[in-house]
Amino acid sequence: MSHQSQVTRDQLVAAATRVFADHGFKSATIRQISHLAGANVASVNYHFGDKEALYQEVLKQSFDYVMTRHSSGTERTGASTGALDLRAFVEAMLRPLFGDEADLDGLHGRVLAREVIEPAPAMESWLRSLIEKQACVLDGIVRDLVGQQVDDQTVRLCGMSIMGQILFYSPCRAVAARFYPELPAGAIGVELLADHITRFSVEALQRFTGPAPRASGFEGRGDSEEAETAVHLL
Amino acid sequence: MSHQSQVTRDQLVAAATRVFADHGFKSATIRQISHLAGANVASVNYHFGDKEALYQEVLKQSFDYVMTRHSSGTERTGASTGALDLRAFVEAMLRPLFGDEADLDGLHGRVLAREVIEPAPAMESWLRSLIEKQACVLDGIVRDLVGQQVDDQTVRLCGMSIMGQILFYSPCRAVAARFYPELPAGAIGVELLADHITRFSVEALQRFTGPAPRASGFEGRGDSEEAETAVHLL
DNA sequence: ACATGATTGAAACAGTCATTTAAAATATAA
DNA sequence: TTATATTTTAAATGACTGTTTCAATCATGT
């Protein structure tokens, strides 16, 4: 493998990362990628075999990038409070989803987020293991905050509430501006967002101590039929 | 317009709703749709002009369906507590996102959710107005729960936290099972989910009374550097 | 410098896509 | 029924897709 070969290979991966992040696997075209990389259309098939193999390579590199760059932030800090653990976790998950177009963090994060939300061909085992590991870490953080009286299913639901708040800004960062157009997009920094999500979640979790779900202020009369039919489950 | 013409038109819309909900605008093909409708490939272009016009029709009908069927649930109940308002809102937003393949609620909801999260060609003004209206309703509900001392931006962030928890289950319903595989998918009913999201959010919002963000339990020492760099913003 | 293998480039391939065409079939109106 | 308009059908069109082919080019080791 010559030197120039490695260069074009890298350029192809870089271009593919951007195109896949922007359009997804199916909508991205080899011609877009090769043109952006300044290479021939046949180069993808020569260097990687086919489109899907290139995608797997992009997925793998994005995975490695996020792991080495940010995943350390999701390790338990151990001695600190659960709130700080959560704060670090949220920011570590959130940061790759942001960053401008040129930012590597944003690109890699968007590729992974797209794959997680709508798995295109086949999710690789290492990506699945990453997700499960993160979910496990989050479980632990939540457990620290809610205490031991809460059952496992509730802990998982709380984890999903947190992940929902985070992933809301992934492929759907545009949706935030759509829901709240008057709120300038650039003004929502990662830190501000991480602060809010952490605070929102900590406030909620610190009251999830009791397993009795009806002890939380639903004493009003049920006007809406939807509310009436289901509020007994609370 | 003959009677049979109207029949095939309706069948095309019905088939298109399903295919668009499953694959999105770009990936859905006219051949899929017309075959599912038992019509010719040219029928779409004859009855609607082109693929995008058919998509607009599907969007419009899904919009009307959700509006008449569920949007009443998002009206303020007025006299009841904010928590019940939130519970009704959450379930009204959540229900269309669920339901099995044959369920009309699920189909229409998924079409709209797909469009909101990743707007395909151009979001129509009535859809935009629906979103803004819903956001406004949610703002009001949140405002009722947090009180008047909280600034508008925080109210909006709280609204997005709630929407994040809801939309987490939209195209990404699979992601829940992915994060927590041992949790049987069917076991998470709409009511259970709505109960949890409502409880989680109410617990959080009821503590968002004070505008001072640092009064909420971040007194631990900062181990993680990410936490350290940003915790001063709290 | 030369020969050999690795890499690139332009073109062509087969497949699918949305869309168009025009003839056939059907419904509607007289 | 007959004439007219509407609707359906099969086939073709042109633009895209991923992939292949093969000659030209380049790099590398002798």
What are its keywords?
DNA-binding; homodimer; mainly alpha; Tetracycline Repressor, domain 2; 0% strand; 234 residues
Share of β-strand residues of chain A: under 5%
As residue ranges, the low-confidence spans of chain A are 211-234
User: Please, how many helices of chain A?
Assistant: 11
CATH fold topology of the domain at 55-205 in chain A? Tetracycline Repressor, domain 2
Give the structure's gist in a few sentences.
The structure is a homodimer of 234-residue chains. The first copy, chain A, has helices at 3-27, 30-36, 41-48, 51-69, 82-94, 104-117, 125-146, 152-167, 173-179, 190-205, 225-230.
What does this structure look like?
By secondary structure, chain A is an all-alpha fold. The first copy, chain A, has a domain at 55-205: Tetracycline Repressor, domain 2 (Orthogonal Bundle), CATH 1.10.357. The first copy, chain A, is 65% helix and 0% strand. Chain A has eleven helices and no strands. Chain A has helices at residues 3-27, 30-36, 41-48, 51-69, 82-94, 104-117, 125-146, 152-167, 173-179, 190-205, 225-230. The first copy, chain A, is elongated, with a radius of gyration of 21 Å. The N and C termini of chain A lie far apart (64 Å). Mean pLDDT of chain A is 75; it is low at 211-234. The structure holds a DNA duplex (30 and 30 nucleotides).
